[in-house]
C-alpha cells in the first residue's frame, strides 16, 4: 500500500512539473510574441495597411518606367489620414535590405538647408559601374525611398537603396516633385509611402511601390499608387548581386541624356551620391489648388525678350533665370510661350525655383 502511495505521489509530482514547464514555455512564447508586436509598433504606421506587392504580381517590364497599381488608388484608410507630420523607416531585414518607409509630409519636416553627402552609405547590391550611354556615366545612384526634399532625411541607411539613374530621375522623381511642390505651395499634408520590392534574396530591388494621398482634401489633389521599375536603357542587371553588363536589347521609354539633370547640385560628385530627388521631368498628374492659381496670377513680370519654356509632361513653365530654364531648352517635352499669361491660360503653373 505504501509503495502504491509513493508511486502515485511521484506521478503527481511529475505531472505538476510538466504543467509548470509547459506554462514557462507558453510564457516565453508569449513574451516573444509581445516583443515582435512591440517591434512592429515601434515603426509607427509603416505597415498599417499595405497590400502585398511582389515581383510575382507586377507586370514584366515592357518599356515604360512605371505601371499603375490597384487602379492608381493608394492603400490608405481614413484612419491613416493625419495632419500631424511624421516619418518612419523600417528596420533592415536579415539581408541588410531596406523595407517600407512612410511619412506624413508637411512643411515642418521639410529640409531647410542644403543636402550633405551620402557617399559613405553602401546599400545592398552597390557597385560603381559606368556606361557611356547613362547620363552622368554612373549606372547606380543611392536612391532615397523618401526623397530628401520631402523629409530632410539624408544619409540614413534605412532610406537608401541601389537604383539606376533612370529609375532615380525618370521614375521616382516626378512623383516626388509633385508631392513636394504641393506641400510647399499649399501648406497641406501628404501621406506618403514607398515600398522596395525584392525578389527572393536579391540584393537589388526590382523597383518600388510609391503611394501618396493628400490629407486635408482626402486625395482630391494628390493620389497615386504606382510601381517604378529599377531598370536602365541599354544595361542588363543581375538583381541578385548588382552586377551588370551592356545589353542593347533593354530599351527604356524615358527622357535621357541632358534632359535628365540632378535636382540638387551634388557637392561631391566623386561620391556618386545622387538621391531620388534629381530633376523635374514629371510624368505624373499635375494638380491645381486655389492658392496655386492665385500665386500664378500675381507673379512678377519676366523679360519679354526671352521665351517662356514649359514642360508638356509636368505642365510646369520656367522663366529666364530660373533653375531649370536652360535645361528645358534641350527637352523633348519643351513647349514655348510668349508670356506667363499665355502659359497660365494653357493650364501651366510656374516652377518654384
Structure, described:
There is one protein chain. The protein folds into 3 domains: 1-42; 66-271, 3-Layer(aba) Sandwich (Extracellular Endonuclease, Chain A); 290-350, no CATH class. It is built from 6 helices and 14 strands. The chain has helices at 2-41, 148-151, 165-186, 290-297, 325-328, 340-345; strands spanning 66-68, 86-89, 101-105, 140-144, 160-164, 190-197, 207-214, 223-229, 235-237, 244-246, 308-311, 316-318, 334-337, 349-350. The strands form 4 sheets. Strands 1-8-7-6-3-2 form a 6-stranded antiparallel β-sheet, covered by helices on one side. A 4-stranded mixed β-sheet has the order 13-11-12-14. Strands 4-5 form a two-stranded antiparallel sheet. The longest helix is centred in the first third of the chain and has 40 residues, at 2-41. It is globular, with a radius of gyration of 26 Å. 40% of the residues are buried. Residues 1-50 and 255-304 have low confidence and may be disordered.
Amino acid at each position: 500500500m505504501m509503495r502504491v502511495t509513493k508511486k502515485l505521489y511521484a506521478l503527481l509530482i511529475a505531472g505538476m512539473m510538466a504543467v509548470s514547464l509547459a506554462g514557462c514555455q507558453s510564457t516565453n512564447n508569449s513574451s516573444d510574441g509581445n516583443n515582435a508586436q512591440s517591434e512592429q509598433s515601434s515603426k509607427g504606421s509603416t505597415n498599417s495597411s499595405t497590400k502585398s506587392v511582389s515581383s510575382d504580381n507586377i507586370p514584366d517590364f515592357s518599356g515604360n518606367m512605371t505601371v499603375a497599381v490597384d487602379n492608381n488608388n493608394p492603400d490608405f484608410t481614413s484612419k491613416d489620414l493625419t495632419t500631424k507630420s511624421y516619418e518612419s523607416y523600417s528596420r533592415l531585414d536579415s539581408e541588410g535590405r531596406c523595407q517600407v518607409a512612410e511619412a506624413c509630409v508637411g512643411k515642418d519636416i521639410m529640409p531647410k538647408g542644403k543636402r550633405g553627402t551620402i557617399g559613405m552609405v553602401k546599400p545592398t547590391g552597390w557597385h560603381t559601374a559606368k556606361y557611356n550611354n547613362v547620363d552622368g556615366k554612373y549606372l547606380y545612384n543611392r536612391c532615397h525611398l523618401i526623397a530628401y526634399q520631402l523629409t530632410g532625411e539624408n544619409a540614413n541607411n534605412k532610406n537608401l537603396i541601389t537604383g539606376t539613374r533612370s529609375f532615380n530621375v525618370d521614375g521616382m522623381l516626378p512623383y516626388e516633385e509633385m508631392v513636394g511642390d504641393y506641400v510647399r505651395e499649399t501648406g497641406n499634408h501628404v501621406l506618403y509611402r514607398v515600398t522596395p520590392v525584392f525578389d527572393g534574396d536579391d540584393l537589388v530591388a526590382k523597383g518600388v511601390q510609391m503611394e501618396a494621398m493628400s490629407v486635408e482634401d482626402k486625395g482630391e489633389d494628390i493620389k497615386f499608387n504606382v510601381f517604378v521599375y529599377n531598370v536602365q536603357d541599354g544595361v542588363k542587371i543581375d538583381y541578385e548581386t548588382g552586377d551588370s553588363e551592356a545589353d542593347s536589347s533593354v530599351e527604356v521609354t524615358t527622357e535621357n541624356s541632358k534632359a535628365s539633370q540632378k535636382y540638387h547640385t551634388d557637392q561631391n560628385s566623386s561620391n556618386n551620391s545622387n538621391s531620388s530627388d534629381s530633376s523635374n521631368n514629371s510624368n505624373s498628374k499635375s494638380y491645381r489648388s486655389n492658392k496655386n492659381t492665385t500665386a500664378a496670377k500675381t507673379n512678377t513680370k519676366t523679360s519679354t525678350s526671352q521665351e517662356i519654356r514649359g514642360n508638356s509632361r509636368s505642365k510646369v513653365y520656367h522663366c529666364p533665370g530660373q533653375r531649370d530654364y536652360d535645361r528645358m531648352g534641350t527637352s523633348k517635352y519643351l513647349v514655348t510661350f510668349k508670356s506667363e499669361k499665355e502659359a497660365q491660360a494653357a493650364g501651366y503653373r510656374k516652377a518654384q525655383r
